[in-house]
Every structure is written in C-alpha cells, then in structure tokens.
Write a structure and sequence with these properties.
The chain has 269 residues and is an alpha+beta fold. Helices cover 23% and strands 19% of the residues. β2 and β3 form a beta hairpin. α1 packs across α4 (223-233). The relative contact order is 0.19.
C-alpha cells in the first residue's frame, strides 16, 4: 500500500480536473485561497467568500420536451369511468415527472475595503460549466465577467481546466493548457495573460488592488503551494486512480510523460 501523500505532479494534477472531483477541489481551493490571501492584504482589505446559485441541466443529460402524444393517443377504454370508481372516490396513485435541473453552486472571492466594504478585486476559479459554450453556467459567468470589466473592480480569472474553450480574449494568444487573466481596472481594455502547461509549475498569481499601490507591491498568491497542501489535506491520493487515464484525456506526448512520472512515483504499474 502506498502511504505517500505528496502530490505527484510538479504543477497541476490533471486528475483533479475530473468533473466528478472538481467541485470538491474548487470549493476547498477557494477557501484556502481566501485564508492565504487575507494576511497579505490586511489591514486595508479583507477577503469575502461569495457564492452564486442557479439551476442548470446536468451536463450528461439531454433535456427534451415532454412526450404529450402518449396521452393524446391513449386508448380511452383503459381509463376508469366515474361510475366504476368507489363511492368514496379514493385517490389514484400516480407519478409526476421529476425535475431534470441540478442546483449549481459556484464560489468566488472578493477583496473588499475594510472600511465601507467596497469590492476592489473579484477572483474567479473557473468550473467546467463556465467553459461550456451555450450552457447556463457559461451565460451567467460571462454576464458577471462583463459586469466586472465594465466597472472599477479588478478581475483575476484562474483557469486550471484543460477541457472546454478559453473565455473570450483578444491578442497574440499562445496555445496553453492553463492560464490566469489579470485585468486591472485602470489598464483596461488591456489585461495580462499568464499561460502555462501541464508539465510546468503553476506561476504565482498577482492580486491587483488600488492603482495607487505599485504593481511591484501587489500580493502574489502561490497556487502551486496551496494545491500541494490541499492534495495532502483532502486525501486526494485515496480518491484518485492513477492507473487509468485522466478526464479529459491527455495529448499523446503528455500521456507518455504522465505515464513515466507516475511509474517513477510508484503510482502506476
């Protein structure tokens, strides 16, 4: 039995991206980010953990219109007539269709001024639904994103998911597995893109505050250290089967690299 709880990957663990595991990763990581960032921004600011809730169809479910033709074409002789019912008119047991919608909860962070509570920076960690074009999650997040970009609030958008298409942006964009977008309100429409890949260490993420605070003095959040700590604290080594391919699948070259790394770590035979 392997008792090693150290994260096996130098950067992002692709097995954490599994849609079934990601909600747990997302919520735990957001809490750790809030706790790690708070001492870096106090006493002028505090970090609030916020949540948006909406109903959406499960990604694996195809939602169609009810088949009313089954009722329209039913044989009337199969239905009991009033005079055939008991005098007490006992109710019949029927079944109603269940809702096909799931309640989705997405957490995000807001850096607020300690005096007055004004939101200075919104920090978003993308979920699979946020990158699924045409979904409820995509539409709601895109609307929130546009509202932030049209305000005086800074935006930090963290994408640690290979699946889906990156959110809209313009410029000389490199192909990458993961990315941060740092949008400082006073620099818009320009923003900074940090692009990195599976085999690389996750760079530290700058957190912009007020314009009057020099960029060099901006706090930087070490997501790599937080993820490694989270891996151990959450016991993800007990929940991940490294003997199978991750979801979503890897490119052939990366799959070969992952296979060698996991063999060396004793996590794959």
């Amino acid at each position: 039995m392997n008792n090693n709880v150290l994260a096996p990957f130098p950067g992002m663990d692709p097995y954490l991206e599994d849609p079934h595991l990601w909600p747990d990763v997302h919520n735990r990581l957001m809490t750790m980010m809030a706790n790690g960032l708070t001492p870096l921004v106090r006493p002028r600011y505090y970090v609030a953990l916020e949540e948006r809730v909406y109903l959406a169809a499960p990604q694996s479910t195809l939602v169609g219109r009810p088949d009313v033709s089954l009722v329209e074409k039913a044989d009337d002789s199969s239905w009991p007539r009033v005079d055939e019912m008991t005098a007490a008119y006992q109710p019949l047991v029927i079944r109603l269709p269940e809702s096909v919608l799931d309640e989705v909860r997405e957490t995000y962070l807001e850096v607020r001024e300690a005096v007055g509570g004004q939101v200075i920076t919104a920090i978003e960690l993308l979920s699979p639904a946020n990158k699924q074009r045409g979904s409820e999650g995509y539409g709601r997040y895109l609307q929130k994103r546009l509202e932030v970009l049209g305000s005086q609030t800074n935006l930090v958008e963290i994408d640690l998911l290979r699946g889906g298409r990156p959110l809209p942006m313009e410029g000389n964009l490199p192909m990458s597995d993961y990315r941060f977008i740092i949008s400082r309100s006073w620099q818009r429409p320009q923003a900074h893109l940090y692009a990195f890949n599976l085999r690389e260490r996750i760079p530290d993420c700058p957190i912009p505050l007020h314009q009057d605070e020099a960029t060099t003095a901006e706090p930087r959040l070490s997501l790599q250290n937080l993820l490694h700590r989270l891996y151990e604290q959450a016991g993800y080594d007990l929940r991940i089967d490294y003997g199978v391919e991750p979801v979503p699948p890897l490119r052939p070259a990366d799959a070969e690299w992952v296979d060698g790394l996991l063999h060396e770590a004793g996590l794959r035979e």
